[in-house]
Amino acid sequence: MASYFEERNVNENEETNDRIQRLTRETFRMIFDQDPYQYDNIVNNQITPPASKSEIDKLKIVSHDKLLGEQCPICLSPYQLEQKALTMPCDHVFHEECLKTWLKKSNFCPLCKLELGTDNELYELYKKELKNRQIRERNIEELHNSMFS
Amino acid sequence: MNNIATQRIKREFKEVIKSEELAKCSIKVDLVGDSYTELKGEVAGPPDTPYEGGTFFLEIKVPETYPFNPPKVRFMTKIWHPNISSVTGAICLDILKDQWAAAMTLRTVLLSLQALMAAAEPDDPQDAVVAKQYKEFPEIFAKTASHWTNVYAGGPKKNIEFDSKIQRLIDMGIERDHACAALSSYNWDLERATEQLFS
């Protein structure tokens, strides 16, 4: 006889993180079934939208004496005196022009993938949902451990 | 080509040439013609995999918008791998698509491809037939991949049984590559491969 799990097509060995992602995807599909194109981009293809203008404007300029002998990881050329450099919140530095071109396409740091906020409501909602689920899962685990250890 | 793309490729060229991996003969890039828009890559099959001992050539096309968009990469050497098309050489690898980041380089791409050869992801396949064999008959998969490495990439492991089956089909007037592909797809079942080829 097929087990309960088999009948329901449930993988007992699924990792917690995979399960959270899967459940978020499923919930999201139900909420956003009127926009399958966006759903596909965000959830299936994990295409990140551009960073929002306000987030880009917040990036700080780096002074030149700190960049002596360094090179921009995007164009791989050294920082020249007349070129401005910007830093991401993760402290990764790039030419202003290089970084801004990149952030018009994707919202994450080219080196460590730290994400900036976007203007895409759907994407932000998805990220929030994923994060909330992870927090909830952690809380349950902590509660469980406090009761049984 | 746009200046930043060309300039960057030139710098990257130097990076690959200086890299340890080149010294160990595991990766290489060459120019095709005078422009920096088309390159030829080379990766060595990783040790302890069916690809060991083989040399795999890659077609690398650098878009105008590089490095803001990924290079287009395809295997020119035929390869039997779940994430690479056995027909066209097209590659399914996230960093060559939406997970690309502007700080990645030709060196990181070639090393990622080598890592992909060492650890396939059959749940995200490019070639469904290969992926199915990888999951259901891992031993046949390993032998097949090893055979393809021998035939197409100069790998050392000859498989006499497979060779004789291919020869049988060649004797029936089938082209060598078609014979090899059909037999590989049908887990080296000569009868079923023949059936498919003549149907």
TrEMBL record, chain A:
**GO function terms (MF aspect):** ubiquitin protein ligase activity; zinc ion binding
Query: Known SMART domains for this protein?
Result: RING, RINGv
Xref: Gene3D superfamilies = Zinc/RING finger domain, C3HC4 (zinc finger)
Q: Name the InterPro entries for this protein.
A: Znf_RING, Znf_RING-CH, Znf_RING/FYVE/PHD
**From its record, what is one biological process in GO terms?**
protein ubiquitination
Gene Ontology CC annotations of this record: cytoplasm
Give UniProt keywords alphabetically: Metal-binding, Zinc, Zinc-finger
Residues annotated as domain RING-type: 72-113
* Protein name in the entry: Zinc finger, RING-type,Zinc finger, RING-CH-type,Zinc finger, RING/FYVE/PHD-type
Q: What species does this protein belong to?
A: Cinara cedri
What does UniProt list as this organism's lineage? Eukaryota, Metazoa, Ecdysozoa, Arthropoda, Hexapoda
TrEMBL record, chain B:
Where the record annotates domain UBC core, the positions are 4-154
Limits of the UBA domain:
161-199
Q: What is its EC number?
A: 2.3.2.23
Q: Which residues cross the membrane?
A: none
Q: What class of enzyme is it?
A: transferase
Q: The organism sits in which domain of life? A: Eukaryota
Does the keyword NAD belong to this entry? no
The active site lies at C92
Task: Tell me which SUPFAM superfamilies the record gives.
Answer: UBA-like, UBC-like
Q: Which Pfam families match?
A: UBA, UQ_con
Keywords, ordered alphabetically = ATP-binding, Nucleotide-binding, Transferase, Ubl conjugation pathway
PROSITE patterns, per the entry? UBA, UBC_1, UBC_2
Q: To which protein family does this belong?
A: Belongs to the ubiquitin-conjugating enzyme family.
Query: What is the protein name for this chain?
Result: E2 ubiquitin-conjugating enzyme
According to its UniProt entry, this protein's organism is: Cinara cedri
Taxonomic lineage from the root: Eukaryota, Metazoa, Ecdysozoa, Arthropoda, Hexapoda
